[in-house]
UniProtKB/TrEMBL annotation:
It comes from Glycomyces paridis. Catalyzes the reduction of 1-pyrroline-5-carboxylate (PCA) to L-proline. NADPH binds at residue 54. The gene is proC. It is found in: Cytoplasm. Keywords: Amino-acid biosynthesis, Cytoplasm, NADP, Oxidoreductase, Proline biosynthesis. Its main location: cytoplasm. GO terms for molecular function: pyrroline-5-carboxylate reductase activity. Residues 3-96 form the Pyrroline-5-carboxylate reductase catalytic N-terminal domain. This is Pyrroline-5-carboxylate reductase.
């Protein structure tokens, strides 16, 4: 079993740690890093894993996961000058940062894989999309996939698609939460107890997601199956169209993609 070092244990870093352990990885094969002694103690107590300095973690690892914020990635790699030997694959989950950012700062020939998971990793329902870099062969890509398969579903795409991936699945959970928030508040406005409205929305979202995944029908077909002539659903959808909801969603996703591109330019 490989030894994995997770550099940065915020929500996504911690999700990777916990997912690997749930999948049967031994605590001895997972190393984490933390900003503070208090956070390190929390991780040791919660998971029984080793928590070490960034350089020590990298030197021990067969695979390194960079899970810090994009603005912190450059300083982290500077700190790690001399720690990388160029053989251990480096997997980045830093939103917006391209493979080239890491290849430029790591020893020549270091295999790099760019990955974009999302927060449903916390409940093993993530969508993680990976893109191998110049030096990442099939074995390196498989090592990266091995980290994320316990967290949900995985796909591999060319890196040119990663900004769109970030905008759709990386940021996507927030869009669904925004809609759920609006629907819940609408229910309360109409007199439903908040707990009832929240349960209606959550279960409806879960059921709709399963139908999208399992029915084999397109979103259009599923929506039309709910609508009936002159019915309640088609009246509601007409209001969404009157308010340009479809265009607003497209504009929002394009804004997320554009921001991912800006991040790459800012920290290049």
């Amino acid at each position: 079993m490989r030894t994995v070092a997770v550099l940065g244990t915020g929500k996504m870093g911690q999700a990777i740690v916990s997912g690997l352990l749930r999948a049967g990885w031994s605590p001895e094969s997972v190393i984490a890093t933390a900003r503070s002694a208090e956070r390190a103690a929390e991780l040791r107590e919660a998971y029984g894993i080793g928590v070490e300095s960034n350089p020590d973690a990298v030197r021990r690892a067969d695979v390194v996961v960079v899970a810090v914020k994009p603005q912190d990635a450059g300083s982290l790699l500077e700190e790690l000058t001399g720690a990388f030997d160029g053989t251990a694959p480096v997997v980045s989950i830093c939103a917006g940062l391209p493979v080239a950012f890491f290849e430029k700062r790591l020893p020549d020939g270091t295999p790099v894989v760019r990955a974009m998971p999302n927060t449903p990793a916390l409940v093993d329902e993530a969508m993680t999309v990976l893109s191998p870099g110049t030096h990442a062969d099939a074995a390196c890509l498989e090592a990266a996939l091995e980290l994320f398969k316990p967290l949900g579903r995985t796909l591999v795409v060319d890196e040119k698609h990663q900004d769109a991936v970030t905008a759709i699945s990386g940021s996507g959970p927030a869009y669904f939460y925004y809609l759920a928030e609006a629907m819940t508040e609408a229910g309360v406005l109409m007199g439903l107890p908040r707990a009832v409205s929240s349960e209606l929305v959550a279960q409806t979202a879960l059921g709709a997601a399963r139908m999208l995944r399992e029915s084999g029908s397109s979103p259009v077909e599923l929506r039309e199956a709910v609508e009936s002539p002159a019915g309640t659903t088609i009246s509601a959808v007409r209001q969404l169209e009157n308010h340009r909801a479809r265009s607003a969603v497209t504009d929002a996703i394009e804004a997320a993609r554009d921001r991912a591109r800006e991040i790459a330019d800012e920290y290049a």
